[in-house]
Design brief:
38% helix; TIM Barrel; 8-stranded parallel beta barrel; alpha/beta
């Protein structure tokens, strides 16, 4: 069977050699039919093409031609063209019709027909590349000398208070500052922008500012808080022996929580207990379990008393610390206070039921009796109650970026009953403000919320770019364009975030709508997109978005979880290094925030510099390889060695 399949693959090659003219004629017929389909789709979209801005007409025509080309399965034609020694049109995104015209012209010459006229192509290979480069420069600024791909960095709240952080980011390769308007507030955004303006002057480098609208993100609402208890424990070795006692700061200051650096816990206590304490003194108490515990005073500081404890204790508000009679001081007791309740969470595992509710009441975990019988089903509120309208039985629900998922079992007015089907092996704790996705549901929500509309005035005045989140339809882009026109004569560029299934499905129409604006780009928001469409489809969809964007000469931004392990923990995974290298095919790459963001930025900058001469979009660039040069040098050395040893080559 295998040998017959191989023979079938070889036979066309033999036939081409015997009858080349017939094969060229067959290929030309296929190409002519393809070109006719491309021109026909352009005619049928005349109205849409007229609506785009004049500077984008060429790009709009090329997008239409490319879409017509990709509506067909061209794999057979590609194989045929490759066997004829011709271009397989596999890299025609930026100049679709010109690519087909060129191959038709070559087939004409091969069969002796040199008088056929070619259809007017909007752009050729060189012009297509220049249009993409122009649009990228207009949107994101000029590239750095050592790499063409720009780097965007998301700001943490710290950037509002730390000028040095912003300066270091700019100095180490940041080309665009991203401010997520789902977090912080206008005062903090203003501080971040001031720090960037100052850093621009100090570093003599330019940097664009992107501000993301939060959009209609569906999230879990508040959850009933947990108990106000602190578990404090010493460090132990594998045998359970204490290697380091727990360190606790006892302080009377209201801002005691801000003094937590270098200690395991900070407890607020009345000042009367602290007076007269010295190093070596002891405080005694009963923890919440009734266990006797003691704190040994290690030092007295201006912030309070530093104590150590070599046994585990559970302490809550009202836990009484007792200071025995010391020297001239009488016995004193005081209660701990100021311990905040733990953040609420709902534990879920496979087989559990969760109610997602439109009611604003705080969410509650399930309650069971001693036999395991469920007395109360777990419940969580939804921040966008309107999103629950129209949810149908059998549709999927994903929570917390897909960490928890299930299926809708029932709907009842403002409630959706979900049977949990997938969690980590030990279950998961669902917390407040975590994403909720309904991948199978048709939810019609405007891309611009009331809060977004309020923030737009600030963005139009202070940002170079505005990010439109959760775009589902071309009308979402049209709405943003109209709002910006009313706010300013010089509107910022638009970055369309593709993070939903519907946004992906409507991408061509969304791009044509964006072409009414002077500057636009697309962000591949891989986090929500993976949850919406499935992780196994993400790579395929990412490729398709890159191709469609290149056909529209539209800058693409590769985003979400780029070097995330490095940014968060300081150590990258091998897979994310490869992902960062692959991101070179986009025009910009986005890094998210993290304590090691500077290291992540330097690493990404280095990777992109190294990949720049190797890859241009889908094309591998054949830069001289050191491996090949070393092989030739090694060969010469071997030959020289043989001659020197008296073994000349004849």
């Amino acid at each position: 069977m295998e040998s017959s399949r191989n023979a079938a693959q070889v036979l066309p090659l033999v036939r081409h050699e015997l009858t080349p003219a017939r094969d060229f004629l067959r290929a030309r017929r296929s190409l002519m039919g393809l070109r006719e389909a491309m021109l026909d789709l352009e005619i049928r979209n005349t109205a849409a093409l007229k609506a785009v801005a004049p500077q984008h007409r060429v790009s709009a025509r090329n997008l239409i031609h490319y879409l017509a080309m990709r509506r067909q399965d061209l794999r057979g034609l590609q194989v045929e063209l490759a066997q004829l020694g011709m271009s397989s049109i596999g890299r025609a995104e930026a100049y679709a019709l010109a690519s087909v015209n060129n191959i038709i012209r070559l087939t004409d010459r091969m069969v002796g027909d040199r008088h056929r006229s070619a259809a007017d192509a909007p752009c050729d290979h060189a012009a297509g590349g220049k249009l993409l480069e122009r649009n990228t420069r207009l949107l994101l600024g000029a590239p750095r000398r050592d790499r063409a791909v720009r780097i965007m960095v998301t700001m943490s709240s710290e950037a509002a208070h730390d000028y040095t952080l912003v300066r270091d980011l700019l100095q180490n390769g940041m080309d665009c500052m991203r401010i997520n308007c789902a977090h912080d507030n206008p005062s903090m955004w203003s501080a971040m922008i001031r720090h960037l303006h100052r850093a621009r002057v100090a570093c003599k480098k330019d940097c664009a500012i992107l501000m993301d609208l939060a959009g209609p993100k569906i999230r879990t609402g508040t959850i009933e808080p947990g108990p106000a208890v602190r578990k404090i424990r010493p460090s132990r070795d594998a045998y359970g022996r204490v290697t380091k006692p727990a360190r606790i700061l006892l302080s009377a200051k209201r801002t005691a929580g801000a003094l937590s650096a270098g200690v395991d816990a900070v407890l607020r206590i009345d000042r009367k207990l602290l007076g007269g304490l010295r190093r070596g003194d002891t405080l005694r108490f009963l923890d919440t379990r009734g266990r006797r515990r003691r704190l040994n005073v290690a030092a007295v500081t201006r912030d309070g008393v530093l104590a150590e404890m070599d046994r585990t204790a559970y302490i809550t508000n009202g836990t009484t610390l007792c200071r025995p009679r010391l020297r001239k001081h009488p016995r004193v007791t005081a209660d701990v206070h100021g311990i905040a309740p733990a953040a609420g969470s709902i534990y879920l595992s496979s087989g559990d039921t969760l109610i997602i509710s439109s009611e604003p009441a705080a969410g509650t975990p399930a309650r069971v009796d001693s036999t395991g019988r469920v007395l109360r089903v777990a419940r969580v509120p939804c921040t966008l109650p309107i999103a629950l309208v129209g949810i149908k039985v059998g549709e999927r629900v994903c929570l917390d970026d897909g960490l928890i998922s299930g299926q809708v079992q029932a709907t009842d007015g403002g409630e959706v009953w979900v049977r949990i089907e997938q969690t980590p092996p030990r279950g998961a704790h669902l917390k407040a403000d975590k994403g909720i996705n309904f991948p199978d549901s048709r939810i019609d929500l405007p891309a611009i919320t009331e809060d977004d509309a309020k923030n737009l005035a600030f963005i139009a005045k202070n940002a170079d770019l505005v990010g439109l989140s959760f775009v589902n339809h071309e009308r979402d882009v049209g709405s943003l364009i109209e709002r910006l026109k009313k706010l300013t004569d010089k509107p910022p560029g638009i970055v369309i975030k593709i993070e939903t299934r519907r946004g992906f499905e409507h991408l061509p129409a969304i791009l044509l709508s964006a072409m009414r604006h002077s500057r636009f780009g697309v962000m591949i928001a891989r986090g929500d997109l993976a949850v919406e469409c499935g992780y196994e489809r993400l790579a395929e969809m990412q490729e398709e978005i890159l191709w469609i964007c290149e056909a529209a000469h539209c800058p693409a931004i590769w985003a979400t979880q780029v070097l995330e392990s490095l940014a968060k923990s300081g150590i990258p995974s091998r897979a994310e290094i490869t992902d960062a290298a692959m991101s070179q095919r986009a025009e910009c790459v986005m890094l998210n925030k993290g304590p090691h963001i500077i290291a992540a930025l330097r690493t990404l900058d280095h990777i992109l510099q190294r990949m720049d001469p190797h890859q241009s979009k889908k094309s591998s660039m054949l830069r001289a390889l050191k491996l090949a040069q070393d092989f030739e040098s090694a060969g010469a050395s071997r030959r020289t060695s043989k001659t020197t040893n008296g073994s000349p080559c004849h």
